[in-house]
Amino acid sequence: MKKSTLILSLVIIVITSLIYYNLLESNNSTDANFEYKEKKGRPKIMFPQPPPFDPAKLEEKELKDYANWREELKVSGNQFTDYSKKKPNREIEYFSNLPSYSYANKRINGNWAQKYLHMSSNVGPSYSEGGSDALGSVYDPVNEEVYVLSRPGHLYKIDDTKQVKWSLRNHKRNFLGNSSLNFRGLVLSGVNLPDNSFRLVNQQSNGGMEFSDDEGRTWTTANGALFQNSLNFKTHVVKTPTGRRVVAHGGNFEGNSGFDKLFISDDYGLNYRESRYKFSRSSFEVNTLKPHNDNSIYAFVRRKSDSKIFIFKLEAGESEFSIIKEPTQTFTGVDTLHGALVGGVYYFYVSSGNKNIYYSKDEGETWEHTNNTNDRNIVEMHPTKPNIVFKGFVDLFISQNFGASFAGNNHRLSPGTYVWDLEHFRIYDKEDGGSFTFSGFHFGSYYTTDPSDWSSWKSINRGSPNMLSYDAVTSEIHDKIYVANQDRGSQSFSGTPSQNGYYETAREANTDVFRVALSKNESSVWFWYWYGRIGRASTTNGGNYGTVVGKNYYGNWWATSMIPSPDNNEDAIYIPSGQNKLEKITYNGSTLIRTIHPYTFPGSAVSFNYSPVNTNRWYVGLKTGEFFYSTDGGTTFTETTYTGTMPGQTDKHTKQRQVIKGSPADESTVYYTGKGNIFLISKDGGITFTNHNIGLNVNEIMDFTVAPSGKFIFAACNFSGIWVYSTEEDKWFEMNGDDVPELTSFTDVQYIKSKDIVRFTTYGSGVFDFKIDVSSLSINDNVINETESVKAFPNPTSGSFKVPVPNASKDVLVHIYTEAGRLITNSKYKVVGGQIQLSLKNEASGIYLAKIFLEKPAFVKILKE
């Protein structure tokens, strides 16, 4: 490149950067007392779905094997289980929290614990018991018990009489079924057996019907039904003259053609028979309905060529569907169906396209098109008041006039509740009459026996562990956990539960918060909001989102890393802004001030960090993977000489950027990872790297943390689970077990040194602690080598000793560890005459190690006689 061209390019970069920063700064505001903003364009986070299946794409051996398998199934009548050899397990077996799990070839032992939460807020809009997502439910009408499905489709049972109302049944499976909003959460159902116990029944995405007699913990595949390619729609249960019936609407393939099919079981879900009616998916659209107060099942079949529907009915006393109506009305779709038998009259509703509402009061013979400008499909109808129907998205809305118009209640279900974003709404018939209504919002789960009465709703959120957390950070000094959530803003809670077993949360920030960080010796907490706002609050005077001081800096639905200043006494954070410079945002006591770091990178900076041992070692990762290091506090940078494959990133608001961290044990060791099955380690401060991914099998690493000794690295790998790396074996090991959830997004991990806990945070399943059994580790696995320049005297000591701390402030934080690595002291000491005085007077004889938090942490071993 010619010199003149290079100079011109640099000038253009500088001018473009100045325009960009000035435009952003012009939108700044210091008003932090904002409420929930309307959130448009949120990118969806897709939980793992079964891989798509299309027999038309099979070739050679795969096609032959599939054809043989289907023929064998057909001959057997889709028999999956021989009940003469295997009987359903009716004994209830609860998950046993094993006393210890071993990982990394038994080098690490410990046990798991989940945080069960109680969300409340006295700051308006206040609420007494909030929660997080619920996307599905099942109701036992005989025993009056309810089961709930969380965002990842995990199964919980609710007990409203207990302090912790939620108890886990299965977090290894996703029971939501079809991901379509019209069918999500409708394939899991339940049938009461002759002894009134409750059997759960469910459609497999690629397999048969299945059932569970132990509340969803274990499952057996039933015979007769077959579903493929996630063609799972609805499962209905009705009473018959001889017992109870299960009807499943799903689909499978015949040859290369897909069909909607209806499967019927009259033996409580053990065996199914296929209805003689089946419908080609290329020609027909099918939906099914069980009206309230009735034991019939209806199938609405819309012919795509002329938009006419045919209504089929299965009476409780009949064995097969029969066609009963062919109305002249045409329909744009049959997205949702709802109905009720009231006073001997069948009332039906059909919704389609999030616009059209059709209403019938003669079992579908004639129809009235009551609304063609609606913004959402109907989600339910009142079981005894046919003029009342329900819909929802940002709120719950009720129509009193057959869907012609709707009204909400300003995000209140009843006093003490506050809700946004309806995800699930289901009305169930009780066994002895009446109804039970369950609603699931982004703000929690609620129930009522009269859904038309706004004041009747009750919360069942206390003890729910679930949160949609993008990020998290723990203040060890204040024993406080901060999580950055979708919708629920930032919630904080103590690391110690209440006497009732749950953790009381405080609302630190509203709306969607993408990142959270601590600065200035953990006295300040920072938030990155969904619309580009950066906010700052106090960790000791928090719990009120109105105290957050903030300004708008960045675009919507976008975030990188947010890292506390290397100067622990500075109330500031650093952000690689996606441009070619680093930015620092400082709180000056009243407002935020942004400064642009002078160094210009040759691309978009999206990752930043520094060595915790020597904070003059800075590291930056670019969007395209290039890695830069500095040894002079960011004045100059040099690109690594490593030429292998670099970690990638995803340009969005989630933590899917490259991740950089320095070793707490060695200032020259730095780690670099991100998208891809890659984990780079440099032993020379970033000059060169080697890839250490033996045993690792992940799509990306969203976050990782390094044990104080540097010997173990723990990684949160999105939907690929959680992993631990042993430096001694140079190998990765997956951390799994009964108490570890699957099919959820692991977003954050932090090693809590004061408690020897590895804390994992998820988007969907809340916060999990892995408490390490320190007796299985040596002191060298928990702490790092002592610093020669810092000495203790007298040493050995019989109790008290002093440590000189030159150039220290008035108070110095000190951690003292036992030889086994257990933290016994986490306190600040006053500096008197250039030294601090400590005591091991009440401790047993042995070797201890003190970590003194100076500008650069210092370590010293002490022998207690």
TrEMBL record:
Segments traversing the membrane: 7-24
Keyword Plastid: no
Residues of the Secretion system C-terminal sorting domain: 793-853
Pfam families the UniProt entry points to: Por_Secre_tail
Keyword tags: Membrane, Signal, Transmembrane, Transmembrane helix
Keyword Lyase: no
Protein's recorded name: Secretion system C-terminal sorting domain-containing protein
Source species: Polaribacter butkevichii
